[in-house]
Design a protein that fits this description.
Length: about 240
Amino acid sequence: MSVDAVLDHRRYGTGQEPAILRRTARVLLVDGQAIVRFGLRQLLAAEPELTVVGEAATARDALLIADRAAPDIVVLDVDLGHGDTVGVDVARTLLERRRGVRVLVLTSCRDREVMLRTVRLGVHGYLRKGADTADIVRAVHAVLRGESVFDSRTTAVVMDMIRADEPGDRPRGQMLTERENQVLKLLATGMSNREIGVRLLISEATVKFHVRNLRDKLDVRRRTEIVYTATRQGMV
């Protein structure tokens, strides 16, 4: 483990504690810049529901600490200094290896292809480093609640690239109900379940029900794949 990696095992154990004893969500910070990791740690330290269990500057350390600390969420910069694909590979490995972990990308990377590849993996959020600190904190909490968070610029770029992409081989999804179409269109704007419920005057639980139906009908596993798949099939 490099000198830029920190695992707070003395305070936070191995992540195997019973859920009832884990009073805070466990956060792993992965960024090649020490000053950024320090700033994020200080920012999240003010949140009583969050505990930073480790930080890493390299892909190797990120995966090693993730295995040891069992984070609930990883705040990841896809640009770790050795090419943007390194961070994308970290996101892929985390999502494949650690069931239930959530990945929030916080990056200054402006490569449109990297952005699209990362979203396709099923990351739960994608923000630029220029985001307001309050927005970053809100994004962490939203992702932990099971929501997806993408800033407006990222949403616009991804939607443009998806529409320009060649149609996939996947057949068009089953016929959607009027309400499912309404939910789908609002999902495409980046709204959370709560915001969709307010807009449509329905409960958040009802929104979750429709989102689950959309996943089933489009044959996808993650919320972030709904809009991507629906757009490629000409449904949005």
